Structure formats: C-alpha cells, structure tokens
Amino acid sequence: MTPTRSAASSVQAPRGVVMIRPHHFTPNPQTAVDNAFQGTDSARSARAIAQAAYDEATKAAESLQAAGVRVHLFDDAGTTTPDSCFPNNWFSTHAGGHVAIYPMYSPNRRLERRADVIEMLKHNYRVQDVIDYSGLEQDDVFLEGTGAMVLDHVERVAYAARSHRTNEVALERFCTHFNFEPIVFDAADGAGKPVYHTNVLMCIGTGFALIGLDTIRLPARRAEIEQRLADSGRDILDLSHRQITEFAGNAIELTGDQGPVLAISARALRALEPDQKARLEAHVALLPLDIPTIELAGGSVRCMLAGVHLTPRPSAR
Fold it and tell me: What is the SS3 assignment for 299?
C-alpha cells in the first residue's frame, strides 16, 4: 500500500524536538538497578565512549534536520548528569501552550532540569503556563515524563506501566491538569523483570501503534489495551520480547517537510520483520538513527527526543 502523506502537522507528530548533546556520556550507575536495558562496553575507554555518544547525537540531530524536523540542540558539558541526553523524562509540552516539569526517580537525573530550555520554549513558542511537579520528589513520588507515560494526543489517553518511576498519584494529577485518561498496567520483559519505562514497549503514531502486547502481565488488561488502540483506528503492530529488547518500541512519529517520519534507531529497525516495516511505511517514512553507544544507557531514539507540541511564535517560524 502506498501511503498518502502531506506535510500537514498531526497532533500526535510534532514538527520540533529538543535534544541534549552530552560531552561526558556514560551509562548511569544510579539507574542500572531497575533498567534491564542498560549495558556496558569494556572494550572502549570512558573517553572514547563519551566521544562516540557526542558524535551520535550530532549526527542524529543532522538527520532529523535534513528531514525537515526543527531541532533545538543544547549541549551538556557537565559530568554529573550521565543521562542528560534523555530530556523527554524531565519535561513535556502540550497543545494550547502548556509545559510540564516532572519529578525524577534518580537523584542525579534531577540535575538535568534546565531553565534555559524552558526559556527557549517561551521565546520561540506560545507558552501559556508551566506546571512543575518536581516538588513531589520530596515525598518520593515520581513520574518521569513521556518515558513513564506514552500519550495518545488524539484520543487523550495516557498509557503507563507501573514502576519506581511511575507513581499513580502523580499520574492522576497530570491527567487531571492536562485532560488525559490514565490507563495503568503492569508490564515485564521476557525475563519477568518489570519494565522501567512505558516508552520502551509502546509507541503511538497517528495511524499506527507499536506495542509489545506480551509484556502486559494480565491477559484481560492486555486485551483491553489492544481493543482501545484498535478502536482508535490504528494499525497495531505487535512486538516480540526480542524486538522490545532491541528498542523497537522506543520510537516517535514526527512531522518533516515531506510529511510524517518515524524516528527509530538503526538497531530497532533491523529487529523489525519485513512485513512490519512495510506496514509502517504505509503511514510514515522510516528514519533510522544510528546510536549504539547512547543505547548503552538503556534508552533509545524516543528517549532522546522531547517533542515540541507548541505553536511557534510568528517571529520564530
């Protein structure tokens, strides 16, 4: 099937993203306990790993820009924020001019929040309010943004897998403020370990959804979520545990100059079956980004891209 694409924006697929390019990248020891997706590389020095991550982020930004996605690229030269290249966990943006700032589970991840990023958004886009939930950290209540939640901006549903990083009290508060319906579930990887972030098992696009249905523990809940996605009219691509491990669920639909693109890692794309790729290409152009070093930290392309769902100011278009 040949897709019919246009450059018109979808509420699900932002035209812009925020990225943070790390100068001293390393897998975060504070998150390794509950992130089974993290890895190590004993063959390279710390300096070589950091340089590779810097280069991967640079090339990823260039590839997105070449596709017509607006990239706001910030640098992190600090040494205390090893996961800074994953900004989608500490803030999100929403149509109507709303921004949310989130409480983070690991202490060193709380240092990732940056006032200059929020000020850039206010300068370039119409921002009506900023709702800051980060004070919940004092009560050990956490909600790590669009890592903890996968948001269906069309149907107004927030899908969330329970974990240390997804507190239901914070989720309810977010959903009340931002007009989403929460759908919470328990999820585990192929080894039975709880999945740390919802966005490694699920990606919702305008006309499709990638989801590891077998990760959802309760059969009744699994069927309910599958039906909910089907009722939205989306083409549902069920991912295996192996594909989830390869980050096939950690992707994001964006709007480029020629229409919708799916930003996905090269590793994840290799894990997809030919028929799955063909089904995706009926909806989006596939944009693989090669980030093997950054994926050592347990996150992939979706984690690197904080979508900008805001209206640009006329002077910033």
Answer: coil
CATH class of the domain whose range is 16-316 = alpha beta
Q: Are 247 and 301 in contact (CB under 8 A)?
A: yes
Distance of CA 67 to CAs 113, 190, 254, 257, 297, Å? 28, 35, 10, 6, 26
Q: What is the pLDDT of residues 22-70, one digit of tens each?
A: 999 886 565 645 555 656 656 778 899 999 999 999 999 999 999 999 9
Q: Are β-strands 16-22 and 70-76 bridged in parallel, bridged antiparallel, or unpaired? A: parallel
Cα gap 117→94, rounded to integer Å: 15
Cα dihedral sign, 272-275-278-284:
negative
Instruction: Kindly report the pTM of this predicted structure.
Output: 0.93
H, E, C per residue of 41-91: CCCCCHHHHHHHHHHHHHHHHHHHHHCCCEEEEEEECCCCCCCCCCHHHCE
Domain ranges of the chain: 16-316
Residue ranges of alpha helices (H) inside 199-261 are: 219-231, 241-245
List pLDDT tens digits, range 150-206.
999 999 999 999 998 899 999 999 999 999 999 999 999 988 988 989 999 999 999
Evaluate whether 60 touches 304 at the Cβ level (below 8 Å): yes
